[in-house]
């Protein structure tokens, strides 16, 4: 059953990466409180986006609902955050989704891009270890696994934090994202925060020089490698672990508590950041966040869009869609293992959405 479910997810995402997938969505009201579909049966407007595989399960549900009551089709290609950013820069899509904010250098080249937080997720550390159902890992141990320093599952460093667990004499196979990935951005920033050696030798980013292991394309590719390889360990958005029944490691958080990935843990990690987020909503990291319940590998995911949108039917519908996603669309978050946006973040999103439009003329409400 696990392999069959994974095959379905893999086939779906592979189709999206090559051809895209028109999906549908939404019931709710428009920005003026009017019922959806106010265009009165006009031809559907096609919107295009690309990027994060981290977001795909949530986006699939959102877009399907939105199209049910709005004259819009949404074609979103889950090709990874790096691919989505490039597509936005190249002008081949109207919006990108990314779990990594743009660097200062990228912002110099694309100063009109705004970051709109769309959801919060936990990055699970999944493993395939026969006979072990509750594996514990600390940040430094996890970093040493991905540095290639820990090569066997019965290594003393793992055994010391798993008393009473019979760890097999099995090679450790770390699996990482081979494509530019916002999930890698979150994961490597966590390793950077908890391991000085990782910080100095590898660093953090959407793509890094991995010291050891196997690559997998997309979250589905990493999940597939973990599922099929005894001794494998990998990272992906929690929804992929839950859907494919992959065992998830319990991690020690910043306050020394042992926590499993959860929407509550991701929300707890984001709670402090939400109160002091910068107005441009960039450079917000919530890895290794303090708090008794905080899950340490959590992160925001953003929709990236140009601030200077021309007044076209597509752009007007895009702004309406984004407004709906940060309001009514948030009801899909928890059932799909994401944390809904805190109220403070929604208010910041609203301010950014009101500012979308060429020449200082907002497209919101048009």
| CATH architectural type of the largest domain | 3-Layer(aba) Sandwich
Radius of gyration: 20 Å
Structural class: alpha/beta
Largest beta-sheet details: 10 strands, mixed
Helix share, percent: 25-40%
Features:
366 residues; alpha/beta; 3-stranded mixed beta sheet; D-Maltodextrin-Binding Protein, domain 2; 10-stranded mixed beta sheet; single chain; 13 helices; 2 domains; disordered N terminus; 13 strands
Task: Walk me through what this model shows.
The protein is α/β, with parallel strands linked by helices and 366 residues long. The protein folds into two domains: 2-118 and 301-360, D-Maltodextrin-Binding Protein, domain 2 (3-Layer(aba) Sandwich); 123-274, D-Maltodextrin-Binding Protein, domain 2, CATH 3.40.190.10. 36% of the residues lie in helices and 18% in strands. It is built from 13 helices and 13 strands. It has helices at 2-19, 56-67, 81-90, 104-109, 139-146, 156-160, 182-194, 196-201, 218-228, 238-243, 263-274, 313-326, 343-354, and strands at 22-23, 45-51, 72-77, 95-98, 113-127, 136-137, 173-177, 214-216, 232-237, 247-248, 250-252, 258-259, 298-306. Strands 1, 2, 3, 4, 5, 7, 8, 9, 10 and 13 form a ten-stranded mixed sheet that branches. A three-stranded mixed sheet has the order 6-11-12. Strand 2 (45-51), helix 2 (56-67) and strand 3 form a beta-alpha-beta unit. Helix 12 packs antiparallel against helix 13 (343-354). The radius of gyration is 20 Å and the shape is elongated. The N and C termini lie far apart (48 Å). The model is unreliable at 1-41 (pLDDT under 50).
């Amino acid at each position: 059953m696990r392999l069959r479910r994974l095959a379905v997810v893999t086939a779906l995402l592979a189709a999206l990466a090559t051809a895209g997938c028109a999906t549908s969505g939404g019931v709710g009201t428009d920005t003026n409180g009017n019922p959806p579909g106010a265009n009165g049966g006009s031809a559907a407007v096609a919107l295009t986006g690309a990027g994060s595989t981290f977001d795909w399960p949530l986006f699939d549900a959102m877009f399907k609902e939105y199209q049910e009551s709005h004259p819009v089709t949404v074609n979103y290609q889950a090709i990874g955050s790096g691919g989505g950013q490039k597509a936005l820069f190249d002008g081949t899509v109207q919006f990108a989704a990314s779990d990594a904010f743009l660097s200062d250098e990228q912002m110099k080249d694309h100063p009109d891009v705004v970051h709109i937080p769309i959801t919060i997720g936990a990055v699970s550390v999944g493993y395939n270890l026969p006979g072990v159902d509750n594996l514990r890992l600390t940040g430094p141990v996890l970093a040493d696994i991905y540095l290639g320093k820990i090569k066997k599952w019965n290594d003393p460093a793992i055994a010391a934090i798993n008393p009473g667990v019979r760890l097999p004499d099995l090679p450790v196979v770390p699996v990482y994202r081979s494509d530019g990935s916002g999930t890698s951005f979150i994961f490597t920033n966590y390793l950077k925060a908890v391991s000085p050696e990782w910080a100095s030798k590898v660093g953090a980013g959407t793509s890094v020089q991995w010291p050891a292991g196997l690559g997998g394309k997309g979250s589905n590719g990493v999940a597939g490698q973990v599922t099929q390889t005894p001794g494998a360990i990998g990272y992906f958005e929690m929804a992929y672990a839950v859907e494919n029944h992959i065992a998830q490691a319990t991690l020690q958080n910043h306050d020394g508590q042992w926590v499993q990935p959860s929407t509550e843990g991701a929300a707890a990690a984001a709670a402090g950041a939400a109160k002091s987020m910068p107005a441009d909503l960039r450079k917000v990291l919530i890895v290794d966040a303090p708090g008794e319940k905080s899950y340490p590998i959590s992160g925001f995911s953003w929709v990236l869009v140009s601030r200077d949108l021309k007044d076209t039917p597509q752009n007007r519908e895009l702004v309406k869609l984004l407004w709906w996603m940060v309001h009514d669309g948030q009801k899909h978050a928890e059932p799909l293992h994401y944390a809904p946006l805190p109220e403070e973040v929604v208010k910041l999103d609203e301010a950014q959405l009101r500012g979308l439009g060429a020449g200082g003329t907002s497209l919101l409400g048009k």
